[in-house]
Amino acid sequence: MDNRDSRAKRAPKELWLYRNYTDSRYGPSAQERQILEMIVRGAPLSGTLNKLCTLIDLEIGNTVSVVSVVDDGGGHVSAHAQSATQVGLILFSSTDIFSRSKTLLGTLEIYGCDPRLLTANESQLIQRVALLAAIALQRHKDTQKLNRTSENWDCALDRGANEKLPFIN
Question: Cα–Cα distances in Å, from 131 out to 50, 72, 88, 99, 159?
Answer without folding.
Answer: 15, 21, 28, 9, 42
